[in-house]
Predict the 3D structure of the following.
Amino acid sequence: KYNSIDVVRIPADFPTPAITKIGISYYDATNGALKFASYRSFPFPGDWTIYQVDQRVWAGHETRGTYSSMKYNANYMPVISYHAMSDATTIYGSVKLASYVTSGGSGCNSADGEHWGCETIDRIDSINELEHGTHTSLEFTYDGVLQVAFYNSNQNSLDTAWYQGFGGSCSNAEWGCTTIDDGINRGQFVS
């Protein structure tokens, strides 16, 4: 899974008419980068804007943005979960989260990084765990809590993560992680 799409309709707010927003997260293999394409239907005829959200620093085995899943939050801003693998000094597999911010973004490596906040949810440092954090899928609960499902390569399991602020069980202690189903080859191709 290398891309995801979501569509939202923003109600009219006089004098602005209702707006349709289409968002697509996808992987740019040439640059090893997570990208986001956004379409707004107003002003007519509408247009597409492309953001480079997070990209590799060096052209080795490093990637950012495979297995992405994207949804608009309650404020009509895009949120993307995705897989990231390795950097110049450490070999790892991880699940990351990118959230659109109007300014002051941090944690993303890209020219458009000021518009995005990126953080690692869970990560395993090992050459044997490069697939950890693949097969992501995200959704918001009815009360707005973000849930991210992903493949845990260490346990061959389907795991889920949610933001709790502190004391979590993911490698980033601001997030809680739990295994839903484990065994041989479980947790891939989640939707």
